[in-house]
Specification:
The chain contains seven helices and four strands. It has a four-stranded parallel beta sheet with strand order 2-1-3-4, with helices on both faces. α6 packs across α7. The model has no long low-confidence stretch (mean pLDDT 82).
């Protein structure tokens, strides 16, 4: 069971960081619940535009720089998904080391509301754990690649020209199948005196016949079927 420490009275400056899709209102509620009542201020939010990019954290770098500049603490509403991310842990730990080497009274505390509450995260320990996990994963991947090579599996990027050719062939095959399905219906419509492309499209829509993408028929889409 994880223990979250909530301080009823917190002080100081904080900089918020988001990297998991939470909106600002939800994040603010979590921080208020964690910090409680006190003379604390949240200087600014830094939100990663694309949280799924594990190896690029530009907003985190900005947030850490602001913490150093304003002698603030970095606070993260939900950090559990980040503690095994090598880039996140490395950036935080290196910035803490840089601040410590300045030999001033400043220090960089990093708080995770969902892990330790107002108690600073032990970034040195998290860094060691993340590196150990990364090394273990790397060895596992290399071992699996070696096994695949021994089995004769060709590794590496696919030949794009071959992939495009296969894709084009599949699209043409689907187009032929679709044409074979639609043409008999169009011929029936034409027998009823509907000769123009617009009339045929109107009748197809009236009968509830969908296009290949499930949309409505227009004169151009009928012409494409008859032409190809």
């Amino acid at each position: 069971m994880k223990t979250i420490t909530v301080n009823p009275r917190s002080f100081g400056r904080y900089v918020g960081y988001l990297s998991n899709g939470l909106n600002i209102d939800e994040a603010n509620d979590i921080i208020k619940k964690t910090l409680g009542i006190g003379s604390w201020t949240l200087e600014q939010w830094f939100v990663e535009p694309n949280p799924k990019r594990r190896f690029h954290k530009p907003e985190l770098e900005k947030a850490l720089d602001m913490c150093v500049e304003r002698n603030a603490k970095l606070i993260i509403p939900k950090v559990q998904h980040l503690v095994h991310n090598v880039v996140f842990v490395d950036l935080c730990y290196r910035k803490q080391i840089q601040v410590a080497q300045l030999k001033t009274n400043k220090k960089l505390d990093i708080l995770g509301c969902d892990l330790m509450g107002v108690e600073p995260l032990q970034m040195g320990l998290l860094f060691s754990l993340a590196m150990a996990k990364s090394e273990k994963t790397s060895k596992s991947v290399k071992r699996k690649m070696k096994e695949l090579k021994e089995q004769g599996v060709k590794l590496g990027a696919p030949d794009l020209s071959i992939a495009r050719a296969h894709s084009s062939a599949a699209l043409r095959a689907r187009a032929r199948e679709r044409k074979a399905e639609i043409l008999p219906i169009i011929k029936e419509i034409q027998k009823d005196g509907n000769r123009t492309l617009q009339d045929i499209a109107r009748q197809l829509n009236k009968r509830g016949v969908p296009t290949a993408r499930g949309g409505q028929w227009y004169a151009t889409s009928v012409r494409n079927i008859l032409k190809n």
